[in-house]
Amino acid sequence: MTIQIECPHCHAQNRLDPARINDAPNCGACHAPLLTGAPLAATKDSLPQLLKHSKLPVVIDFWAPWCGPCQQFGPTFAAAAKDMAGKMLFVKVDTEAEPEMGQQFRVRSIPTLLVIEGNAELERVSGAMSAGQFKAWLMQFI
Ligand SMILES: [Zn+2]
């Protein structure tokens, strides 16, 4: 079973074996790293596979395009994804495009940040954080 992943660089759709999720796969179109240096946009199909197969802790940003604080927090999340590539997997879930996932993870406000490892939720925080707060929060999981 493969999952569909949009390249964060050229937005090409890639099919990927989820067992390779921690092997730094490259985009088939532009050959840039698919999963390092940029958050990965997950869908209701790809997220369960990512969570199942990732050997790294997964941090999920539940956001929506209409949410101002989410937009402000976006660059902080992206910068952390770049800094901590190879230590954690950074995933974004658009709760407007994927409303089932917000319900499944009982997300009541956005942005909500969730850390999951081995299918267990370690911690969640609702509301945007500063870059310093976010980094300090993440350090406890690596
Ligand atoms: Zn690409």
UniProtKB/TrEMBL annotation:
Signal peptide: none
Pfam family, one: Zn_ribbon_Thio2
PROSITE patterns: THIOREDOXIN_1 (PS00194), THIOREDOXIN_2 (PS51352)
Keywords from the UniProt entry: Disulfide bond, Redox-active center
Thioredoxin domain location: 18-142
A single Gene Ontology CC term: cytosol
Source organism superkingdom: Bacteria
InterPro entries: Thio2_N (IPR049299), Thioredoxin-like_sf (IPR036249), Thioredoxin_CS (IPR017937), Thioredoxin_domain (IPR013766)
GO molecular function, one term: protein-disulfide reductase activity
Residue ranges the record marks as coiled coil: none
Entry protein name: Thioredoxin TrxC
Biological source species: Chitinibacter fontanus
